Amino acid sequence: MARREHLLKIGVSGIRGVVGGFLTPGLACEFAQAFGTYVGGGRVVLGRDTRTSGEMLEHAVIAGLLAAGCEVVRVGVLPTPTIQMYVASTKAKGGIALTASHNPPEYNALKLFNGEGLFFNQYERAELLDLYHQSDFNTATNEEIRGVSADFQAPLRQHLDRVLKFVDVERIRQRKFRVALDGVNGAGSLMSVHFLRDILGCELHAISVDPTQIFPRIAEPRPDTLGELAALVCREKCDIGFGQDPDGDRLAVCDQYGTVMDNDEVLALIVDAALAVTPGDVVVNLTTSTLLADIAARHQRKVHWTPVGEANVVETMLAVPTAIGGEGAAGGVIFPPVHMCRDSYIAMAFLLDHLAKTGQSIGQLQAALPRYFRQSGKVAFEHGRLGPLMQSLETAFPDARLDRADGLKILFDDGWIHVRASNTEPLLRIAAEATSAARVASLYEAVRAAMA
Amino acid sequence: MSKLLRISPVGLRGVVGQGLTVTHVLDFASAFGTLLSAPGPVVIGRDTRASGGMMRHAATSALLACGRDVIDLGVVSTPVMQHSIGRLDAAGGISIGASHNAAEWNALKFLGPRGTYLSTSEAGELLDIYHLRKFDYVEWDRLGKLTEQHDAIDCYLDDLARAFDFESLKRFRVVVDCCNGTSALILSRLNERFGFRFILINARPEGRAFAHEPMTNAAVLGLQLAPLIEPLQADAGFLFDADSDRVAIADEKGQALSEEMVLPLLADYQLQQGPGKIVLTNLSTTALVDLVAERHGGIVVRTPVGRQAAIDALSAYRPEQVALAGEGTGAVMLPRFRFVYDGIASMLTVLTLLAQRGQQLSQIVGGFPQYSMLKGEVPLESKRLPLLFSGLRERYADGRQSTLDGLRVDWPDRWFHVRVSQTEPIVRVICEQRGEAPRALFDALMEQTRSLA
Q1: Contacts with B135 from chain A: Cβ below 8 Å
Q2: Pair A256, A333: CB distance under 8 Å
Q3: Do A25 and B146 touch (CB under 8 A)?
Q4: Do B143 and A143 touch (CB under 8 A)?
Q5: Which of B89, B98, B97 lies closest to B43 in space, CA to CA?
């Protein structure tokens, strides 16, 4: 089968696609009606990011939810974590966020939350998908149709209030940090300005914080997309720079020299700060750096490794006593006392608090971390070739320890290799880590050779 | 076959949740967005039904996806929407409301530029696009934007104030049964802003259960409105359907007039203003219209029953040629104001007639000769219909025959019309005679139809 671009994906993670000919109002409406049927009527919270298609899809989703007999609470343009918290705190039956996260602006998607404001687990997702395919929807009569209400302010206040409980606000304010922010004109734009400038007393230098404008850069916050932020940090001599994604769940960080930091190291610094104030273990995905195990060990804590994906990390966090979790490469920090979801606000708060408490610069804190070297990439494979590829890898490293929780992780004393198939495309994602640059290069090359 | 959904050139109509689903609404509105060619925004509005809240979101989403800006007028009548389309230079509009149907029903009505209903050929194209389900959705950076406007009723009233002499009409004491529909919003503003003395009943906009069925006929007039007129010493009583395009009338004695009287009454006034003009109506409407037209040298043009036939026929005339157009249901359009079915404008015209003649409503109506109409219906299989009509044509060969819509046969002072309902598998029988009711003719027609059932 030839590889093709996936312009529409309806699957266990919900529905995502390119607006226009693919993600149509009809599909969004029917999916929302299936969702409304699945949660059994009652209140459903609906919010969105700043994509141009948000308004159009919002009306389709409202129509679908009302048709299923639900009552809709609109929260407007807000970060995904903010919406999730609001679902849980208002005891709604569920929630929907219209956001394609870091995908390009022509995409949009429905993110679905249960009554606890958590992403649907795999069983819930499969049930909903069956319902959708059966077109077995509740259809409310005129008598049964409920209304739409709006609450645009409370969710934001509630989210920030929760975050602020875990840091010393006065200590941060006194430092009057010079902070750069790239909000990608996303859902968090206004909230982040309010948070950093008004609440945390930073001297804020912000770009792309106009939610009425389109994304000015590639939406995923990465070293190669945050050039403007890096330049801003240098020009304004900032202590730190923050880059968000369009729905405010991920965070990338720029140090005072204008270098976009490694996400695993950022996660390590935040975990260090969190473990100092909260008891519990650490949960991260299998592709996250061994660095996290070192940090956990400093606090006499364990690390639990999970398959990649926020839902998988959260599932484990729900099962073990966890202080904090996250996904290194994805720039996501999950701090349960705020909410069981990726949240760039608790991440920013912990980092600033850590700077204030230690009196050190972000560069100094980073330099003090144990040093690991990482390399990652992806290779396309043909449908049907995945099994033989994995087997050839296994035979190439007969003496290593293996972890098969998500693809194949091959563990050595001084490093590891993780190879897994993408959930959405016929792609193998390869990551390798070791204690020296030479060793990681040879590991990565060995993988490529084994798969050739 | 239970009737829960009907998709036809007139639009989409059904029982919400049972026949009419949100997907129908989305697809139909998408087809409309695809059909529209004129530039400009699309206006939407809805009547008071709860399901309208759901349908407005579906219609909005579809239109935005087609790249149209949407102006949502909120809860307004269809005539107010039609007025707004012209005022806002819109490309068209979707009116969400099931006018005279019960509360559990809802419908979409599609309006073109200038607020007119779609012609049969445009409506046919809309249906083709709907059935094909290939819609012109635009890319992410060309999607439409939604705005809400809340002044549509006030703008409509401003224009009504220019078309009618409000000063001379304010003195009337009028009772109105709003049937929990959109007329309540319009008439309460008319009271507030212009000092009218409308006494409104069933004036609370209600989404789930109307006080009574929203039909405009003598039977419904008699339920609540007519008995109030004498005690309140009112000059007249008016009853509106949910989207206030139709009206029924009771006189100052509390006598409910037949719904057939609305058109002759208005024709009498309109033809007096413009003698010799055309009265456009359908084949089932009372012959009193012919008599009134004759008095003023007017011409009656009769079309098949149904809104669509009237719309198509009207397009053949210049507005200044036409005195008025309407049907026996109380839906009348007057060239004086926008030329769309408009119950409020019809009511103001009746009041203008009263003011001008200085007579009471019962006197004016009493000045018309009496006509008696009998109506019946018989369920009949569609395959038996040709036999019915050929039999009737043979039996009543002595009259003047028209086969434009079923069969109509005319004799001096007497006529009948036998036709097939557009919405149900039934045959409708109507006959009318000047003076006494044509009982023998009616019974013979019913008997002949039943013999085939």
Answers
A1: 24
A2: no
A3: no
A4: no
A5: B89
Residue closest to A83 by CA, chosen among A32, A123, A49, A129: A49
Instruction: Tell if the CB–CB gap between A142 and B50 is shorter than 8 Å.
Output: yes
CA separation, residue A242 to residues A291, A340, A351, B92 (Å) = 22, 22, 10, 47
Q: How far is A387 from chain B (nearest CA, A)?
A: 39
- In this structure, are strands B414-420 and B407-411 parallel, antiparallel, or unpaired? antiparallel
* CA–CA dist B24, B96 (Å, integer): 13
By the 8 A CB rule, do B82 and B111 touch?
A: yes
Q: Which of B248, B270, B404 is nearest to B327 (CA)?
A: B248
What element of type H or E holds B300? strand B299-303
* Contacts with A, B 191-250, CB within 8 Å: 207-209
Chain segment B96-136, per-residue pLDDT in tens: 999 888 999 999 999 999 888 898 899 999 999 999 999 99
pTM, two decimals, is: 0.93
Q: How far A393 CA sits from the closest chain B CA (Å)?
A: 43
b/e B194-206 (16+ beta carbons within 10 angstroms → b): eebebbbbbbebb
Nearest CA of chain A to the CA of B30: how many Å? 9
**A109 by DSSP, 3-state: which?**
strand
Task: Please list the active-site residues of A.
Answer: 101
Of B23, B140, B146, the CB nearest to A53: B140
Separation CA B452–CA A245 (nearest Å):
73
Amino acid, single-letter form, for residue A330: A
A to B CB pairs, distance under 8 Å = 129
- Minimal-distance CA residue of chain B relative to A135: B23
Residues A148-202 pLDDT 10s: 999 999 999 999 999 999 999 999 999 999 999 999 999 999 999 999 999 999 9
Distance CA B27, CA B130 (A): 6
- What DSSP string describes A355-415? HHHH---HHHHHHTSPP-EEEEEEEE--TT-HHHHHHHHHHH-TTSEEE-SSSEEEEETTE
Beta carbons of B249 and B343 less than 8 angstroms apart: no
Whole-number Cα distances in Å, B85 to B117, B325, B368, B393: 12, 21, 38, 45
| ipTM reported for the complex, 2 dp | 0.91
- Residue B38 CA to residue B347 CA, distance in Å, equals 33
CA separation for the pair A66, B130 (Å, rounded): 23
What is the rounded CA–CA span in Å between residue B272 and residue B293?
Answer: 10
